[in-house]
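Field guide to reading this record: the first block holds the primary sequence, the second block holds the structure written as discrete tokens, and the final block holds curator observations. Each block starts with its own label. This record concerns EPS8 signaling adaptor L3b, catalogued under organism Lepisosteus oculatus.

BLOCK 1 — SEQUENCE
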Amino acid sequence: MYRNNSLFDSRDYEGPFLSNGFLRDEPSSERSSLSRPSAKAIYKQRKEYAESITRQPDNFQFRVEHLFTSELDNREVHTVDDCISQLKQLDAQGRVWGQDMLLEVQGSSLQLTDIETKEELESFPLRAIVEVKAVLHSCVYDSILTITVQERNKSRTSVFLFQCEEMGAEHVRADLDKAINQRREETGNQDNIRDNLENIIGQQGPRQQRNKPPPLLPPMDRWSGPEPHSSQWTTPDYEEDNHSQQFTPQEEPQYMPEEPPDLQKAELERNVEILNHVLNDVELFIGQVGAVVAQTPGKEKEKKSKKNKSKKNAPVQGLPSTGEFASCMQKIKYGFNLLGKLNGKIHNPSAPDFVHILFSALGFLTSNCPWRDLPPSVLTPLLTPPAIQLLRQEVSPEEDQLWCSLGDAWNVPSSNENPRYMRVMYDFMARNNQELSIMKGDIVQVLDDSRQWWRVRNIREEEGFVPHNVLESMEENPQAEYQDVLNPPSLNKTSKPQEVKAWLEYKGFSKITVRCLGVLSGSLLLGMTRDELKSVCPEEGGRVFFQLQAVKSSLALASESGQDPYYR
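BLOCK 2 — STRUCTURE
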């Protein structure tokens, strides 16, 4: 602004002025006392500061107002939008009880901390966060942050809703996403399955690649072919759907790093050899029965058809025994299971061709078996899921009618007869829509274990494939434990002390807190104030109060919708 009328216009002074404002003949001591850091030094300091900020994964801390915690029950509350609708209902009733707190990342966990006392109100691992969203201008709360959490061994998915006044929800969401991604990158090199390969596989070549774990194979739709030792997991051997795969069955990679091709070939040849033995035995038995039936005069058959029911099913003299009939039918079932494994691997004849051959034999046996209740009673071996899938795809209408007439022993897959439950030993992140993400400690039900990659179902009824070597068998009573996860304890005003105790234990409170509060009824516990809880449980009273607020909100919503407020 003083370009032309400057009070200190340099044009009026013809002395030895430099561009930095110092005289040429000024002593160096005076110049050094007045000099400022160079532009380069300032830029370097700013750069180091920026790098120090970006290097810190745990610098996430924001002051927020917790509004409400909802649970996705897959009945009335399916999405985050449903949770926002619940919040609006509570606000219309004047029942939103907000609480100011700090939302911060500590290590690998996201914590809710009381601003004044610094007491931890809630904590869950970053890896349990399923989704983070910013909902803007949807109601009186105009900057809502939603965090969807699914903790391991808990069937219910929780959605936390926060109002972000000081810093917008969009900014908080971006920073939290960044913290989550940084933590995932770190754990990918620390406690992820890829750093526990020797424990998983139980075998490893002598001293090979000990210093650097091999990288995970990319998803199948980007494979260019197998590379030796590129992964310690078996290559996915499940069948991809047509939308995500371009491989034909003949092109599907069959390479398995932990099982050399020679072993695969040996196993294939062994299965083919066993199938040939099964077919030979069935053929011999069919010939034996056919020879006896052929010797039975037609008139004698007609006479027998007119006899009373007790004599109608009397075995024809010379027919094999009941045990022999049952044994042959067991071999046919075992043949179906072998064909499930060999489907797509044998040709001329193919697995579907053999299916029709075995059904022809089965039809002959059932029509000539004098013990009509015998075929449906042949329980073992149960058909495997791949065998069931093959039969469903290939049987003719007549074969399908015969198959259905044999009952559950021939139609229920082995995985459904006695549900098998496994515990997850290591995290696994799905890489496509055919796989299922699981976390250490989860309990899953095995649906199909006929291949190296098992199809499993988690507690949220989601299904997908996982490497079999990330699972371990469960001892004692796995089904009861699985049901406990599916039906976690709840709390309401009619809860008895033992139910209150179970709820406190499920929420992870300490033994002393459970002992002090577990003697109360649900009505008494829900009626306690924060100060009362703190006086009884100084360490965890604030956390208990925070959890009770979520219960009260849920009960209020149930009452508003006309449901029994004590349904929980």
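BLOCK 3 — OBSERVATIONS
The mean pLDDT is 74.
The radius of gyration is 36 Å.
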